[in-house]
């Protein structure tokens, strides 16, 4: 009914910053990943590597969730359900099939389970998506919430499959031989660094490559016909349908892809953490991932990466700060609640907003809009 | 094995069924009281107020604080708790929802989730993670003793009777408020069309504040009743009860007050019968499953009308 009145923004420079950033985002990625590559080399601290692994795990999760609220404009509160399905695919397969003997040994290997978990996630995404995706926003959010809660209940109660609240302990980590790295580093260090299975280092590299692949896939998706269809659905569902977009088909595809990333991250989590229990897949985990997407900027890939980085580090910081009061560690979610409220109130487009979203939600200054518009197309067409 | 259990359960007989029915009506009454808050807010501003379950939880905690910690008489503690929750509901609307009145619905929904997360963890910080309960002598003895006995086994105590009675009484009051008073008419007008209502001289903001106040106070009553009935108050009770109450609101047709009452009772009875006869670990799952099935197959609910999408 009433038009939203544009607010005066004294921070014009920030908008310039985000414009510069979005033009040079490719170099930013490259620098980031070159830096990330050497983290286990320069900081061989177990805690630091552990934190970075969880940061990257949440990056994959947040990028996967981003497809639903960011690209198609639906709210998915049950993402943790797919995460749990992926983790339990890995855990139950190693637990029940791990003892089958030599010819079937591959059934419990990491590299076999990884795609299976992703496919299982996608399967459940489709099974949930087909009947529910025709619902409008709020109802859809509630149904996904119900789905995640049902997944949790089934995991707790189906003892024969999942061992219920006791959880499943994994007996092996994936093997990744990085000995070939040795000649590269022997010039820099007096002592040779053993890359073969030192603590969490192999997992660091596995996750780093998964993150890079995820980002590449997301970037390609965003620019593809599929991505354009999703954006059209997000902007105006009815108009998109009138333009000949098969809404259901594209929504189900979005849901399946999003769920498969959840399942993939879940299986990696199971293998990394070596212990899978229902405690890790509470409903609030979904909200934490949603929080990352919202903080970074829904739909904006660099934004979501930043959001995951900031919030996972924040979780660690808050946990450290609250260490003297073990009762309060659980209450750290309070911070995330405040972040959700404050972001929606003051910066609904996120820290690094999509130029498109920014034009809708932010300043109405025409010159900035034009500049953003231009840079957006330059960036997208690769001329910039 | 499951079938043996099922057959065994059916052999438990009529007394068991009546007990389940009574439990269901009680739990349903509590759900109905919360569901009314959801449905009224949804009817007017089309927002699922996720934090409403947290108001219910805080209602129970407030009554506990005023009664056990500050040693006030129980009726005064109850009234103070209702009043505090009313203020909290108004504050919530003012701080979190009002600035987003014209924002996209996704933004408002995320804010509501944030508010719920905030309140739940605030309660965890204030009252700690250990469950609290009202002391034994909160209500006089005669509330606990059975007043009606059926077949010698199914007992109804006065407390259970009172939950039903209080629920029905409050619902009746709410119905009269909505249909007979001026502010009730204004609420119905706003639910119909906010813009036109404001053109007719209705202060829409005041109506929305009033709606939040009424919904929150009913939620607080539900919280106190549940605290007495289950005798356990924890910071997590709000979100489970909130979702079930939302399921009840959807079941009855969201935006429809009599529907929310009916939905609450139906869901409560379905849940206790499901827990008693099918599988008690899946007690919460039954509510979620009912909710998903209703949303998928009949989103307008039992009493709701089918809405067409306007282009």
TrEMBL record, chain A:
Domain of life: Bacteria
InterPro entries hit by this protein: ABC_transp_permease, LivM-like
UniProt key word Membrane: yes
Coiled-coil stretches: none
Transmembrane segments: 27-43, 55-74, 80-98, 110-133, 139-160, 203-221, 253-275, 287-311, 331-354
Pfam families documented for this protein: BPD_transp_2
UniProt keyword list: Cell membrane, Membrane, Transmembrane, Transmembrane helix
Main location: membrane
Topological category with respect to the lipid bilayer: Multi-pass membrane protein
Compartments it resides in: Cell membrane
GO cellular component: plasma membrane
Entry keyword Cell membrane: yes
Molecular function terms from GO: branched-chain amino acid transmembrane transporter activity
Name of the protein in its database record: Branched-chain amino acid ABC transporter permease
Taxonomy of the source species: Bacteria, Deltaproteobacteria, Candidatus Zymogenia, Candidatus Zymogeniales, Candidatus Zymogenaceae
TrEMBL record, chain B:
Gene Ontology MF terms in the entry: L-isoleucine transmembrane transporter activity; L-leucine transmembrane transporter activity; L-phenylalanine transmembrane transporter activity; L-valine transmembrane transporter activity
Compartments reported by the entry: Cell membrane
Domain of life, per lineage: Bacteria
Chain segments annotated as transmembrane: 20-41, 53-70, 76-95, 107-130, 159-178, 207-230, 285-304
Main location, first listed in the record: membrane
Protein's UniProt keywords contain Plastid: no
Membrane topology category: Multi-pass membrane protein
Family recorded in the similarity comment: Belongs to the binding-protein-dependent transport system permease family. LivHM subfamily.
Listed name of the protein: Branched-chain amino acid ABC transporter permease
The organism of origin for this protein: Candidatus Zymogenus saltonus
């Amino acid at each position: 009914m009433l038009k939203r009145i544009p607010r005066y923004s004294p921070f014009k420079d920030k908008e310039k910053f985000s414009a510069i950033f979005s033009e040079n985002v490719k170099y930013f990625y490259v620098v980031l990943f070159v830096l990330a590559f050497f983290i286990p080399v320069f900081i061989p601290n177990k805690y630091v590597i552990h934190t970075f692994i969880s940061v990257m795990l949440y990056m994959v999760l947040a990028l996967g969730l981003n497809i639903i609220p960011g690209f198609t404009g639906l709210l998915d509160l049950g993402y943790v359900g797919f995460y749990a399905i992926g983790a339990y695919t890995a855990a139950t397969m190693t637990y029940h099939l791990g003892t089958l003997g030599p010819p079937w040994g591959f059934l419990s290997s990491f590299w076999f389970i990884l795609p299976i978990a992703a496919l299982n996630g996608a399967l459940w995404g489709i099974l949930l998506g087909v009947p529910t995706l025709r619902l409008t926003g709020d109802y859809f959010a509630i149904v996904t919430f119900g789905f995640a809660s049902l997944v949790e209940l089934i995991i707790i109660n189906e003892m024969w499959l999942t061992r219920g609240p006791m959880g499943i302990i994994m007996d092996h980590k994936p093997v990744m031989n990085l000995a070939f790295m040795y000649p590269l580093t022997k010039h820099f260090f007096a002592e040779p660094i053993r890359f073969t299975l030192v603590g969490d280092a192999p997992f660091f590299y596995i996750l780093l490559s998964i993150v890079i692949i995820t980002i590449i896939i997301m970037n390609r998706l965003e620019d593809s016909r599929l991505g354009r269809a999703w954006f059209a659905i997000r902007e105006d569902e009815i108009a998109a349908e009138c333009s000949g977009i098969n809404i259901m088909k594209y929504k189900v595809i979005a849901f399946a892809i999003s769920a498969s990333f959840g399942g993939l991250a879940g299986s990696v989590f199971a293998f990394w953490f070596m212990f899978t229990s229902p405690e890790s897949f509470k409903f609030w985990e979904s909200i934490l991932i949603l929080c990352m997407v919202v903080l970074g900027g829904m739909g904006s890939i660099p934004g979501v990466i930043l959001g995951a980085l900031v919030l996972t580090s924040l979780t660690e910081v808050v946990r450290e700060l609250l260490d003297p009061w073990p009762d309060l560690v659980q209450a750290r979610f309070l911070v995330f609640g405040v972040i959700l409220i404050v972001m929606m109130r003051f910066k609904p487009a996120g820290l690094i907003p999509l130029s498109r979203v920014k034009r809708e939600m932010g300043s109405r200054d025409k010159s900035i809009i034009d500049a953003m518009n231009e840079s957006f197309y330059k960036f997208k067409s690769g001329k910039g | 094995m499951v079938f043996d259990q099922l057959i065994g359960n059916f052999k438990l007989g009529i007394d068991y069924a009546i007990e389940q029915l009574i439990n269901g009506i009680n739990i349903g009454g509590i759900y109905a009281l919360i569901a009314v808050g959801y449905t009224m807010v949804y009817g007017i501003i089309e927002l699922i107020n996720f934090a409403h379950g947290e108001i219910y939880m805080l209602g129970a905690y407030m009554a506990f604080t005023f009664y056990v910690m500050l040693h006030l008489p129980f009726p005064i503690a109850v009234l103070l708790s209702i009043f505090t929750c009313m203020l909290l509901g108004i504050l919530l609307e003012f701080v979190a929802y009002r600035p987003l009145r014209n924002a996209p619905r996704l933004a408002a929904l995320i804010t509501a989730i944030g508010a719920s997360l905030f309140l739940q963890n605030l309660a965890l910080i204030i009252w700690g993670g250990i469950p609290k309960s009202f002391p034994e002598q909160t209500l006089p003895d005669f509330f606990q003793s059975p007043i009606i006995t059926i077949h010698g086994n199914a007992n109804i105590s006065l407390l259970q009777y009172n939950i039903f009675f209080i629920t029905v009484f409050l619902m009746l009051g709410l119905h009269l408020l909505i249909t007979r008073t001026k502010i009730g008419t204004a609420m119905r007008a706003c639910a119909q069309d906010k813009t036109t209502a404001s053109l007719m001289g209705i202060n829409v903001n005041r109506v929305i504040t009033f709606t939040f106040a009424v919904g929150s106070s009913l939620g607080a009553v539900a919280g106190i009743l549940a605290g007495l009935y289950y005798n356990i108050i924890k910071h997590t009770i709000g979100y489970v009860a909130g979702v079930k109450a939302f399921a009840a609101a959807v079941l009855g047709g969201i935006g429809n007050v009599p529907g929310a009452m009916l939905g609450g009772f139906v869901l409560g009875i379905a849940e206790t019968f499901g827990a008693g006869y099918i599988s008690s670990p899946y007690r919460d799952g039954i509510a979620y499953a009912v909710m998903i099935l209703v949303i998928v197959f009949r989103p307008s609910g039992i009493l709701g009308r089918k809405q067409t999408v306007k282009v």
